[in-house]
């Protein structure tokens, strides 16, 4: 996959692909660093990308994984992310890189670290795959 | 317009020979005089076969195009945007801001077409570029496809008027994925992120070569044409595929060539005497309550006190737990104590009363074709015993009437459920009871074994009975309709 090589050779700041843990066709692990001068400065997170056979025409399944899940109004404590480009607004011209950048910018614009208001209910009821959830997108400006 | 031709001339086989319904005993479509079935004739409607639907769509497009003079596929998108209301489209097109109109319909205005295709600053919808990567810039003779990252000759790069270019193979896979996996046809947009420009038919036909996908696309387009168009409705019968076209929308019965008769306004089977509004409420209630009903109909439950499993086989609803150390006294339906019974219990009983009768007729109607087959066999049998074809026709007529009565009765229970008690509702309930009884008697006669010995006797009885049923049915319907006109009906729970 060209996309993988691209991301390996010149990753944008704060994003590192863990190629050793990548199964080139199904799952990728990506390390994210909280950007400087934001609430998440100094923190490290991990994103898990799962691709199905129809990628990039179908969106990848993207969740936070590992020990540190960011506390953020659009991120559930089970790692699910409420972000429209991951489902309804997906375009095949989007990439792992652009998804990571969107998520970093979502983190950066956060003004108060708190979980989504419906977190406990959602986490209790949600399945494994966030794409099966009918998302009502929270206001992206929060 | 060539593209339109090309698009539709390959629509599938068809059509429907008359063998489809050559069943000799087909229920005839209303020949009874002076009954309320004559409403059919007062509501003009036309049955459209799948080809006629496509033709009708093309005609609509051509019609509008003689005025607006746009490419056919653009007109189709615009018409779809206005739910195929030609007048509204033309009005907006000439009275309003055309640029705004095109932007709202997610197409690039034709006046801007052709100027500098490939450049991006002319996009009327938001053209916010996405990530850091640069867009497919046509550098000389080759360009990068932003989906597959291949560097390819510009000749295989293509796109819509918005100027976003992708390679033909990615386009084809993208469209296939949308059409086949997501079932989308009307609202496929340019694959570029945040570009909402819609893909037109000509582009789909140019880029998708797989027949299966093309066919599915055409189906989807026709489907949305019918569903958006107020004056068209799919025949709800399974596998029918025809649509009904009317000149104005009304809650009146229409009859498809397949024999299915339904309400144009709500698409339920024709439901005289109840109105669409109440029927819709009823159907929803039945759906919501199906769990409750199943639960009530269940044969085993747990004792509300000691949780031991109790089985019930018929009998009354007053239960006493058999567990010697428990002996709880409770009601099977609500699992509450037997005394006292609250009002919610009464409401439930009332609902079940109407629901059971409604379901009973619905169930019987489902076996309608079996009954016709059985009667047909009987008629053949009789003809072997010196009876002429003409002499045995009364049996078929009897089944026709029986089915009509069941259909009417079924919906009278919906009507009655929401009806508030007054003098007129008492008359209505008398009519209903009378028709119910007569209908069940007629049904019983037809179930009986008819041997040639008792034939003369039974013929008279059956004829008398179905004539009586037919008359009572007309009386009941006439009374309800009179009530509608004079506003005699009051409803409960109009919420
Ligand atoms: Zn490509
Ligand atoms: Zn575009
Ligand atoms: Zn039909
Ligand atoms: Zn109706």
TrEMBL record, chain A:
Provide the GO biological process annotations.
protein ubiquitination
Q: Which SMART domains does this entry report, sorted A to Z? A: UBCc
- UBC core domain residues are 1-142
Q: Which reaction does it catalyse?
A: S-ubiquitinyl-[E1 ubiquitin-activating enzyme]-L-cysteine + [E2 ubiquitin-conjugating enzyme]-L-cysteine = [E1 ubiquitin-activating enzyme]-L-cysteine + S-ubiquitinyl-[E2 ubiquitin-conjugating enzyme]-L-cysteine; S-ubiquitinyl-[E1 ubiquitin-activating enzyme]-L-cysteine + [acceptor protein]-N-terminal-amino acid = [E1 ubiquitin-activating enzyme]-L-cysteine + N-terminal-ubiquitinyl-[acceptor protein]
Sorted UniProt keywords:
Transferase, Ubl conjugation pathway
Signal peptide, first to last residue: none
Instruction: State the Gene3D superfamilies in the record.
Output: Ubiquitin Conjugating Enzyme (3.10.110.10)
Give GO MF terms, alphabetically: ubiquitin conjugating enzyme activity
**Which Pfam families does the record cross-reference, listed alphabetically?**
UQ_con
Its Enzyme Commission number?
Answer: 2.3.2.23, 2.3.2.25
Superkingdom of the source species: Eukaryota
InterPro entries annotated for this entry? Ub_conjugating_enzyme, UBC, UBQ-conjugating_enzyme/RWD
PROSITE patterns on file: UBC_2
Q: Which PANTHER family does this chain map to?
A: UBIQUITIN-CONJUGATING ENZYME E2
**Per its record, how is this protein called by name?**
N-terminal E2 ubiquitin-conjugating enzyme
From TrEMBL, chain B:
Where is each RING-type domain found?
141-352, 145-193
Instruction: Write out the catalysed reaction.
Output: [E2 ubiquitin-conjugating enzyme]-S-ubiquitinyl-L-cysteine + [acceptor protein]-L-lysine = [E2 ubiquitin-conjugating enzyme]-L-cysteine + [acceptor protein]-N(6)-ubiquitinyl-L-lysine
Q: What Enzyme Commission number(s) does the record list for this chain?
A: 2.3.2.31
Q: Has the keyword Zinc been applied to this entry?
A: yes
Q: Where is the composition biased (Low complexity)?
A: 115-135
In Pfam terms, one family for this protein is IBR_1
- The answer to keyword Repeat applying to this record is yes
One of the GO biological process terms: protein ubiquitination
Q: What's the top EC group for this one? A: transferase
Spans of biased composition, class Acidic residues? Answer: 1-18
Q: Which family does it belong to?
A: Belongs to the RBR family. Ariadne subfamily.
Designated name of the protein: RBR-type E3 ubiquitin transferase
- Lineage of the native species? Eukaryota, Metazoa, Spiralia, Lophotrochozoa, Bryozoa
């Amino acid at each position: 996959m060209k996309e993988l090589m691209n991301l390996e050779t010149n990753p944008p700041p704060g994003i590192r692909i863990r190629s050793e843990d990548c199964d080139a066709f199904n799952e990728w692990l990506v390390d994210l660093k909280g950007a400087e001068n934001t609430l998440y400065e100094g923190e490290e997170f991990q994103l898990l990308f799962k691709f199905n056979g129809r990628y990039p025409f179908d969106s990848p399944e993207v969740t936070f994984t590992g020990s540190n899940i960011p506390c953020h109004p659009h991120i559930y404590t089970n790692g699910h992310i409420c972000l429209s480009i991951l489902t309804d607004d997906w375009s095949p011209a989007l990439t792992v890189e652009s998804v990571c950048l969107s998520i970093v910018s979502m983190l950066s614009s956060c003004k108060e670290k708190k979980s989504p208001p419906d977190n406990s209910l959602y986490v209790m009821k949600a399945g494994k795959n966030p794409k099966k959830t009918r998302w009502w997108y929270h206001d992206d400006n929060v | 317009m060539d593209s339109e031709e090309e698009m539709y001339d390959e629509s599938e086989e068809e059509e429907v020979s008359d063998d489809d319904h050559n069943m000799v005993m087909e229920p005839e479509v209303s020949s009874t005089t002076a009954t309320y079935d004559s409403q059919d004739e007062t509501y003009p409607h036309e049955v459209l076969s799948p080809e006629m639907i496509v033709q009708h769509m093309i005609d609509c497009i051509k019609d509008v195009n003689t005025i607006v003079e746009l490419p056919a596929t653009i007109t189709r998108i615009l018409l779809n945007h206005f739910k195929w209301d030609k007048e509204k489209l033309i009005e907006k097109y000439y009275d309003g801001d055309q640029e705004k109109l095109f932007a709202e319909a997610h197409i690039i205005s034709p006046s801007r077409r052709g100027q500098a295709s490939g450049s991006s600053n002319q996009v009327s919808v938001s053209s916010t570029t996405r990530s850091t990567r640069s867009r497919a810039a046509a550098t000389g003779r080759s360009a990068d496809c932003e989906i597959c990252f291949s560097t390819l000759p510009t000749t295989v790069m293509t796109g819509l008027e918005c100027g976003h270019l992708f390679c033909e193979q990615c386009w084809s896979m993208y469209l296939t994925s949308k059409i086949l996996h997501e079932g989308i046809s009307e609202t496929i947009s340019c694959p570029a992120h945040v570009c909402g420009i819609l893909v037109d038919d000509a582009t789909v036909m140019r880029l998708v070569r797989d027949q299966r996908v093309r066919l599915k696309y055409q189906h989807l387009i026709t489907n949305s044409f019918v569903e958006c168009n107020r004056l068209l409705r799919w025949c709800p019968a399974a596998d029918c595929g025809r649509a009904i076209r009317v000149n104005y929308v009304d809650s009146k019965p229409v009859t498809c060539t397949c024999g299915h008769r339904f309400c144009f306004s709500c698409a339920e089977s024709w439901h005289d005497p109840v109105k669409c509004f109440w029927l819709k409420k009823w159907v929803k209630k039945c759906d919501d309550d199906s769990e409750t009903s199943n639960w009530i109909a269940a044969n085993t439950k747990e004792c509300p006190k000691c949780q031991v499993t109790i089985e019930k086989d018929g009998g009354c609803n007053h239960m006493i737990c058999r567990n010697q150390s428990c002996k709880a006294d409770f009601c099977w339906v609500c699992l509450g104590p037997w005394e006292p019974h609250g009002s919610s219990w009464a409401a439930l009983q009332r609902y079940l009363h109407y629901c059971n009768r409604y379901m009973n007729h619905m169930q019987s109607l489902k076996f309608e074709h079996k009954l016709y087959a059985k009667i047909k066999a009987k008629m053949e049998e009789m003809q072997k015993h010196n009876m002429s074809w003409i002499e045995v026709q009364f049996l078929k007529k009897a089944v026709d009437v029986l089915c009509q009565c069941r259909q009417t009765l079924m919906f009278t229970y919906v009507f009655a459920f929401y009806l508030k008690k007054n003098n007129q509702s008492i008359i209505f309930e008398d009519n209903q009871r009378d028709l119910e009884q007569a209908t069940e008697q007629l049904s019983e006669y037809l179930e009986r074994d008819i041997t040639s010995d008792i034939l003369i006797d039974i013929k008279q009885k059956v004829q008398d009975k179905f004539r009586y049923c037919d008359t009572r049915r007309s009386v009941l319907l006439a009374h309800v309709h009179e009530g509608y006109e004079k506003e005699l009906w009051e409803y409960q729970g109009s919420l």
